[in-house]
Amino acid sequence: xxxxxxxxxxxxxxxxxxxxxxxDARGDGVRIGxxxxxxxxxxxxxxxxxxxxxxxxATQSAAGTDDAEALIKKSLxx
Length: 78
Prior knowledge:
By secondary structure, the chain is an alpha+beta fold. The chain is 36% helix and 26% strand. It is built from two helices and three strands. A three-stranded antiparallel β-sheet has the order 1-2-3, with no helix packed on it. Strand 2 and strand 3 (29-35) form a beta hairpin. It is elongated. Homodimer; the beta-strands of each monomer intercalate to form a hydrophobic core, while the alpha-helices form wings that extend away from the core. It is found in: Cytoplasm. Belongs to the CsrA/RsmA family. Keywords: Bacterial flagellum biogenesis, Cytoplasm, Repressor, RNA-binding, Translation regulation. This is Translational regulator CsrA.
């Protein structure tokens, strides 16, 4: 891992077409801007982890039911 110290307004270049700009630094938070081509996905780690966990839980609960009709009836209270 590369660790850098930057001030507001300074940039970090990644490859030829990704630019990370430090917008603001206050207390324990830093605001950054990322300029990248449209084809590059930029995700927050905590969001990706939360979605992955939710998908795993949904898969496990769906695997525990015998059929979809029973699951629907159960969710409707029938």
